[in-house]
Design a protein that fits this description.
Elements lengths: L4 E13 L10 E17 L4 E5 L4 E5 L1 H19 L13 H12 L9 E8 L9 H16 L6 H16 L5 H8 L2 E5 L2 E5 L6 E5 L7 H13 L3 H18 L2 H17 L5 H12 L3 E4 L12 E5 L7 H6 L3 E4 L8 E2 L1
Parallel strand pairs: 3-5
Antiparallel strand pairs: 1-2, 1-12, 2-5, 2-6, 3-4, 6-7, 8-10, 8-11, 9-10
């Protein structure tokens, strides 16, 4: 016990191109952004595990037995989902279960007995469930905080595997894109489980919050799967992702905007852009900007989470944002990824 506590910070993320397609073996581009999740691990006594998850207003103690019982139940429910007996929404009943599963999944890999109990606390300014990687940041920050605090010998592959195991419970099937992005930071091209660093986007970026989608990621993924089984949809997404990568390397804003618009058209085609959000994006495009949803979108309701807007500095869309009842903020890239602070 050479340290009393340890805090780590993990960024959020935006998918620039290739959402949904990445789950079917096609490339995607994503970047880490300056919204953060922090997780702190500290010793506590007597021997129990306490959780204080400020972002979801959860504070509770649990025994090791109770945590393992929860893990067993969630693993079984996920298996039932894979067999088609449960929807992905039925696997995690409460938001806090993802964090508790992540914690016990790490602790079950610990070779030595803990000398004391542990307190795990998190806080975040990443919007929840809106396409900015809140679940991935939560998972990765807890994994990193615990493994670093307990001096566990964990490889990069272990980090990614632990992250994906948790993400699967939330999304049904995680490509690993979010986990890679928030762990490494910067901008990455991701394809078939492998991520590679790419040029950091330098263009002005605004994100518009249209509200938390009614559909969760897993439901949207299940809905869009059929579009990628036959036909050219996967190749169309891949072509846009490749073109955007070239435009980012050249830092050519008009070409970047054209790729963003094409990506949005494809997302419309696979049915994950609600009509109200699509109307907003059309209004933004009339002003000379480009915009797209960032994440799974939604197959129901009128909210789709975060919309990325790329525009010349002099273009002002404030009035349109207010007209639709949305909020906006400027974001910048994060290059550090997950790290101890």
């Amino acid at each position: 016990m050479n340290k009393e506590f340890l805090t780590v910070q993990t960024p959020g993320k935006l998918i620039l191109s290739g959402e949904h397609a990445v789950l079917h073996g096609h490339p995607a581009l994503a970047m880490a952004v300056n919204r953060y999740m922090q997780a702190t691990a500290r010793w506590t006594s007597p021997f129990h595990f306490s959780f204080n998850l400020m972002g979801i207003h959860f504070k509770q103690r649990a025994t090791l037995h109770a945590l393992r019982k929860l893990k067993t139940r969630l693993v079984e429910k996920y298996h039932q989902h894979q067999l088609g007996f449960l929807s992905i929404r039925e696997v995690l009943q409460k938001p806090f279960e993802l964090s508790l599963f992540t914690a016990i999944n790490v602790l079950d890999r610990l070779k030595n007995k803990l000398p004391m109990g542990l307190d795990i606390a998190t806080e975040s300014n990443i919007p929840i469930g809106c396409g900015m990687g809140s679940s991935a940041a939560s998972v990765v920050s807890i994994v990193y905080a615990l493994t670093q605090f307990l001096d566990m010998n964990v490889t990069l592959d272990d980090y990614i595997k632990l992250g994906i195991e948790s993400e699967n419970l939330q999304h049904g099937h995680s490509s690993g894109l979010d986990v890679h992005t928030v762990y490494h930071g910067g901008c990455i091209r991701y394809e078939n489980g492998s991520g590679h660093a790419r040029s950091i986007p330098q263009f002005p970026m605004m994100v518009v919050q249209t509200g938390r989608p009614y559909s969760n990621t897993g439901e949207c993924v299940a809905h869009t799967a059929a579009y990628f089984k036959n036909g050219s949809m996967g190749r169309d997404f891949a072509a846009i992702t490749n073109a955007l990568e070239q435009a980012l390397t050249a830092q050519t804003l008009p070409a970047i905007q054209e790729c963003i618009r094409h990506n949005q058209c494809l997302l419309n085609h696979i049915g994950v852009v609600p009509a109200k959000v699509n109307a907003f994006i059309s209004e933004v495009e009339k002003r000379g900007a480009a915009a797209k949803i960032c994440g799974a979108g939604s197959i129901a309701g009128d909210r789709a989470g975060i919309v990325l807007v790329v525009a010349e500095a002099e273009i002002d869309i404030t009035a349109i944002v207010q007209q639709y009842g949305y909020t906006s903020m400027i974001v910048h890239s994060d290059t550090r990824g997950t790290h101890v602070i």
